[in-house]
Give the backbone structure.
Amino acid sequence: MELSTDDIRKVASLARLEFSEQELASFSTQLSRIVAFVEKLNEVDTAGVEEMAHPLDVHSVLRADELQPGLSRESALHNAPSHDDECFLVPPVLGQKSHGSR
């Protein structure tokens, strides 16, 4: 499939990109080669080939996601420099203190 400079210009417009006429011509040639290669890959008989997420036999090394007990509120606040026995207290970072903040 041959991609014209108009095809490239349309895709560039959708992506909000601007290219010179020279760049459009260059991309047209390069992308046409890529599409031709993908079309060539479509000719390969893949009947009976199992789908894979990765070409290598890999497995997850992450631990199982299991529920575990967390810290109590008292333990979490124990070393906090500023708290009100319920929440961490931090200085405002977006200007004035709002009415809903502690």
User: Anything to note?
Assistant: The chain has a mean pLDDT of 88. Residues 21-41 form the longest helix (21 residues).
